[in-house]
Amino acid sequence: PHSIKTLVDFRPSRQRVLSRSEPPHYTPIIAEAVLHNRVGGNPAILQAQVQRLAVAARLDHVELRVLPSTAGEYLGLITPYHLVSLRPSGRLTVSVYDQPTKSIFLEDEGEVATHQEIFELLLSASPSRSASLSLVEEAASRA
Questions:
Q1: Backbone angles phi, psi at 110, to 5 degrees
Q2: Alpha carbon distances (Å) from 140 to 10, 37, 64, 77, 89
Q3: Is the peptide bond before 80 cis (omega within 30 degrees of 0)?
Q4: Residue 54: count of CB within 10 angstroms of its CB
Q5: C-alpha separations of 118 from 21, 23, 33, 74, 78 in Å
Q6: CA 78 to CA 9: how far, in whole Å?
Q7: Residue 64 above 90 pLDDT?
Q8: Tens of pLDDT along 15-57?
Q9: Which of 61-65, 104-108, 116-120 has the largest mean confidence?
Q10: Chain centroid to CA 122
């Protein structure tokens, strides 16, 4: 229980990186379905999450993309991971998987290259930044 609490407490602290004075460029891709999933059946939680997402998506350095549910052939490729390019840019890219009890850092160039290819494929199947933001804002207004 202690390690799970530590990870749960740590995850929101990662979000603060986006509000630093020199924040990194961040391009998340989310499935459209997550804009409608009620966590624990509580609509207030969904509303708060989608509204927070809309705020973050409006930041200049955030390019949120929403993979539409109509992109069925691509939905099977979605597994949560982060591609992190360490400074200097392009010097080292790692893929980070979050699991309930730990985070896994992949440094193998072949595995990371596969994750980069999947990311590019999902990005190409997603609507533009502005269209994705519209989807998020619409969901936030309905939530």
A1: -65, -45
A2: 25, 12, 15, 26, 34
A3: no
A4: 20
A5: 30, 24, 19, 9, 9
A6: 25
A7: yes
A8: 788 888 888 889 999 999 889 887 767 788 888 889 989 999 9
A9: 61-65
A10: 12
Count, residues in the chain: 143
What is this structure's pTM? Answer: 0.81
Q: Can you tell me the distance from the alpha carbon of 75 to that of 77, in angstroms, rounded to the nearest whole number?
A: 5
Q: Which two tokens stand for residue 36?
A: 């409608």
Best CA proximity match to 94, nearest among 102, 110, 81, 83: 83
AA identity, residue 80: P
Question: In this predicted structure, which of 33-42, 54-63, 69-78 has the lowest mean pLDDT?
Answer: 69-78
- Show the tokens assigned to 48: 């708060």
Q: Quick one: which of 93, 95, 20 has its CA closest to 61?
A: 20
Buried b (16+ CB within 10 A) or exposed e, 2-41: eeeeeeeeeeeeeeeeeeeeeeeeeeebbbbebbeeeeee
Q: How far apart are CA 18 and CA 53, in angstroms?
A: 12
